[in-house]
Predict the structure.
Amino acid sequence: MKQGYGLPVFPGVAIGNAVVYRKAQRKTAVFSGDFAIEQAKFDDACKEAKEQLSKIYEKAKEELGEEQAAIVEVQMLMLDDLDYLESVASEIASGVAAATAALECGEMMAQVFANLDDEYMRGRAADIRDVSQRVANILCCTDGFSLPDGYFILVAEDLAPSETIQLPRERILAFVTQKGSSSSHTAILARTLNIPSLVQSDICLDEVSKCDVFAVDGFTGNWYIDPDEDTLSALKKKQAEVQVDKEALEVYRGKKSITKTGKEVLLCANIGCPKDAEAAVAGDAQGIGLMRSEFLYLGRDNLPTEEELFEAYKKVAEIMGDKPVVIRTLDIGADKQVSYMGLDKEENPALGLRGLRICLTREDIFRPQLRAIYRASAYGNLNIMFPMVASVWELQESKALCDEIRKELQSEGIPTKDVPIGVMIETPAAAVLAHELAKEAAFFSVGTNDLTQYTLAVDRQNAKLDKFYDPYHPAITALLSHIAKAANEAGIWAGICGELGADAKMTEKFLQMGYTELSMAPGRILETRKLICESEV
Ligand code: PEP
Ligand code: MG
């Protein structure tokens, strides 16, 4: 047995197979000097790309429906297209490396489609680029990521949101990373999935990759490689106790979240994709308080289309029925990066072009998202929330665009509903200006993760700063009180959707301040409801 320690970010016990995730190491495309070898490499890469696409097709069919999945099917067909295959073969025969040939021929073909009159066919250019990029990626990577069947514990140096989105979440028992902070999006994902998770652990990837049994204790922060019999039975006992505690919470299912003195709160769930809405229902959420819609943009090589976004929002709206769903518009930037938007590399991305700032400078990105939300509004109870607002004009400009889009859809005969528009309060400027913003907003939801980062000037991604990242800091508490007061005075609701929303130490304080909604990982709802129902506040 070998044991070590990590910083626990979600409790629980997991015992199972460890899978080590290593980032792919990229090789540059170099012609090997042998035409036959280069051609064989290309043929193998096409085969691998088809296998990848067929898995993506199955996943997309399940999560987004057959119509959306058809896009992937078209991509698979391209890998059998004779024109494409012959032009790659002829480039390789002229001494071009397989990866370069795959990309260049893909681009030539994409250009042909991009110049067609038909709008649908023009849209296929992006799909073609996507496929040829996939083939090139396979050719340029040495160390892929293959997963075993069944459940496993994921161990990695670090995980970016764009990587976690591609993982088969339902099969992951726990996360253990060497890096990462407790407020990183990997930690947030672990909480959403309700699985134990350790960050900043002292684990050696080579050692764990050779072990038979791996175990994680998300209460103490300990990890174990091949635990001995005593340790294993103690962990199993703990696991059984967790299950008993979970079952005891079931009496709160379907109940109101109301204190003994009659203060009522709506307990909602934070989600990242339509599938998470099912977890929200299973967790007895009274709505979705935060849909991190940027997760629909991560882990892919091109912008999602309006149609894809519409299907995703519609699915969430339908799953939640008449319960409120707050969709936060795209919050790309900082740690959530995508290459295909062509954004410049920034020195200081957390203070850079992120969230609403991208949307207000790139209508080509913002418009399809807003159209998709308004179209999906007809199927449920949707709300829009803008992230990273710092000034009143940003809200006004965004609202004006929403207005324009709703009218545009009406003129196209597409049904929409009224969609309340709220502000995510996560910059100190927005907190200070809460009274002004409240005149323009239908609600506030406080993003305590970023509000802490920006108020205390502490990078939430930097694990070395965890000691200084203090969401209980009096400056944050003062801002939180100020925000709730402004909302109450203006007659709009205020909620918390940052990680503090599920913090038992803060629940009563939030109620006293005047917050009427708390949004959190689905697995935390029943325990928070128990706390509220037992409270005298
Ligand atoms: C927050 O900042 O508190 C928040 C909920 O948004 P995210 O964690 O996605 O930045
Ligand atoms: Mg935020």
Summary: The chain is about 45% helix and 15% strand.
